[in-house]
Amino acid sequence: MRKAESKGRIMSKTFEETVKGGRLTFQACGRQAHVVSGRVLEPYLEIPDEIHGLVVTGIEKKAMLGSRALREAALPAQLCEIGDWAFASCRQLEKVWIPRRQIRFGRGVFKGCGNLLQIPFREEENQALSEKVSGLLAMAPVMLEAEYLLSPMEAGEEVWLEKLDARLEILLDRPDAEGYSRQVLCGEEDLMASLDLYLEERRRQKARLCYRRLLNDYGLGKGLSERLEVFLRENTKGCAYQAAWEVAFREHGSRRAYYEVFARAGCITEENFPQLLADMGERYPEMKAWLMRYREEKMRRADFFAGLSLD
After folding, report:
1. Distance between CA 225 and CA 147 in Å, rounded?
2. Does the reported pTM lie above 0.70?
3. Are the C-beta atoms of 63 and 40 separated by less than 8 Å?
4. Model confidence at 127: pLDDT above 80
5. Residue 220 carries which DSSP code?
6. What is the DSSP secondary structure assignment for residue 149, as one 8-state letter?
7. Which of 156, 186, 189, 309 is most buried, most CB within 10 Å of its CB?
8. Do the beta carbons of residue 92 and residue 68 sit within 8 Å?
9. Domains plus CATH for the chain?
10. Contact criterion met (CB below 8 Å) for 237 and 245
């Protein structure tokens, strides 16, 4: 069990302590302690299981709000509660380790954490399974806007997966123009310059959902899998909207897994291949080489089977 070293008697119910990755302020209550606020000094922050003999069971409202340096956080083993907006606007946050136990999540705990990729469980035995479930769990509050799916005890279970996929399909079914008129009437600051740009971003949002679910395909049914691939294929390079290619190349340029999903969905064609290479230019040479090998192998197989034709 992780413990922070004691530095003398605690003279107040509120005290500060240096931990791995930063300095935290704790509130003592009986034999327990909550994190009240913190200053992150390194990309990795580890909140201890115990501090001065007190079991750390909570993270208070806005405790880590807007921590710019934070990329990965490990939360304590006996955590019971995370307050409203505790990690909101931590824009570089990618991974949060949590215990697999009942936790009360407040509102907007991960609001504005657009780079959140995984919420893995501590000491999970099945690492391959844990990686995919943790990817789906991270989808819930950010991409799916479904905080009701932030349930460590249910994550990965059949009913939970059904709820997640139902929410995913709701978002895919939404008309692309939905919400545009409201933004115009409200004069929101982040209003897109035109309807066309708004529609393009909505398609990219849907493509991101498709990629994330296909990459974390645990419990993914054949029907939904095919639907997600069809969406990517209908939004590849050369189509009216090119969201599938834009997300893979511009947002995940060096991550091979995205290119593999892109290829598997049938998004690479003889017609658009020269355009794909032109877009890449001199960037991501390893991925460019992978695309070229993929095309060569695919054409070789196609030519082989064509040669077997009796016509």
Report:
1. 23
2. yes
3. no
4. no
5. -
6. G
7. 156
8. yes
9. 8-173 (3.80.10.10), 206-306 (no CATH)
10. yes
